[in-house]
Amino acid sequence: MPDAVIAATGLYNPPFTLSNAELVETFNAYVARFNAANAEAIAAGEVEALIGSSVEFIEKASGIKSRYVVDKTGLVDPEVMRPSIPERPDSEISILAEIAVAAARQAIEAWGKPVSRIGAVICAASNMQRAYPAMAIEVQQALGIDGFAFDMNVACSSATFGIKTAADYIATGSVDAVLMVNPEITSGHLNFRDRDSHFIFGDVATAVIVERADEAEGGWDILGTRLKTQFSNNIRNNFGFLNRGAPEGADKADKLFVQEGRKVFREVVPMVSDMIVEHARDLGVEPTSLKRLWLHQANINMNEMIGRRVLGRDPAPGENVIILDEYANTSSAGSIIAFHKANDGFAAGDLGLICSFGAGYSAGTVFVRKR
Ligand code: COA
């Protein structure tokens, strides 16, 4: 059975950056307006006053300093506090497919081979533009790729689930190469009026080309892939096509991202650390021999704790790659951004780990070896 290789990656950064200071200024302006508008009800104890957010808290609790967004105007307007993304006619490419194509073009250029070698496109992301037709098919058409394409959603774990799916297709001989894209406009699912989570996410798109090892030049051997899911309500988004059947719930906060952050932290850290260590052991890899960890970019404290548990010591600078200070949590794309931006200095045979985790709960590990 053919082995699979990560042959190339691509990254698209949206045009706008949004700092914590800008986010907090908008949030606090919203809080001041809300409290002023509800002053009497608050004084009578009928409505709870809102409390402001702070840059210091955000940086300390999450490590996030800034994020990229596809639209900024709506996000810095306390009257709006959601991205302003006009509808496009069906004759135009949708915005999620557009940013996926931008990342894919970069990966294809780095790969240097014709797209006719690609037999499948997988769009693996947390939120799709629409129910159907699939984003992946739109990307496939925009790039002139034959074969088949489909969307899959495993929330923040989508990329590793996508890489495993691609590697399995290659192993079974279904296709010779797969393009996997992770377009994330997370600003669309984030509740910018929620103090606990308004700072968590950012927008981005990444792309990965997975190819048959016997046809690949360079790249990264995929040594092993493993997936795990375990049901939890602690990260949830109840937005869906049946919402219109219950219009009374349309404006409830659960139609956007909601989480029990503390519980997620407590439960996901051991689940993911144990999974990495067990998968490494089964592959005959000593975790301390991993030159680099490219983890899902959730939260600095969570990532550092997983890094320490896996390596059995404090990771050296750059060993446990952190990009969330610049990008925030970009859901499925986080571990791929880290891999894309920080895979230099590897000699043939050096090992690394791509790992993602998130809602579901879900987690995926992809051990790679430089060719
Ligand atoms: N600004 C200022 N203070 C804030 C605040 C904000 N935006 N949000 C919360 N606080 C306050 C709280 O009111 C609380 O105050 P108190 O101690 O006086 O009660 C304090 O900060 C701690 O709040 P808490 O919610 O317990 O913070 P935390 O340290 O758990 O950090 C998260 C919150 C969400 C950053 C953290 O739990 C987390 O990252 N968890 C993992 C979640 C995750 O990564 N999910 C995605 C996985 S894919």
Care to describe what's here?
- The chain is globular.
- It has a domain at 221-370: Peroxisomal Thiolase, Chain A, domain 1.
- Strands 5-4-6-7-1-8-13-12-11 form a 9-stranded mixed β-sheet, with helices on both faces. A two-stranded antiparallel sheet has the order 2-3.
- The chain is built from 10 helices and 13 strands.
- It has 371 residues and is α+β, with helices and mostly antiparallel strands.
- 32% of the residues lie in helices and 22% in strands.
- It binds coenzyme A.
User: What overall form do the CA principal axes indicate?
Assistant: globular
Side by side, the strands of the main sheet go 5-4-6-7-1-8-13-12-11
Uncertain spans, ≥5 residues at pLDDT below 50? none
- Helix percent reads 25-40%
Bound molecules: coenzyme A
Largest sheet: 9 strands, mixed
Helix-strand category: alpha+beta
Number of helices: 10
The run of helices and strands is EEHHHEHEHEHEEEEEHEHHHEE
CATH class of the domain at 221-370: Alpha Beta
Distance between the termini: 19 Å
How many beta-strand runs?
13
> Under CATH, the topology of the domain at 221-370 is which?
Peroxisomal Thiolase, Chain A, domain 1
Mean pLDDT: 97
CATH superfamily of the domain at 221-370: Thiolase/Chalcone synthase
Strand content bin: 15-25%
Radius of gyration over all CA atoms, rounded: 21 Å
CATH architecture of the domain at 221-370: 3-Layer(aba) Sandwich
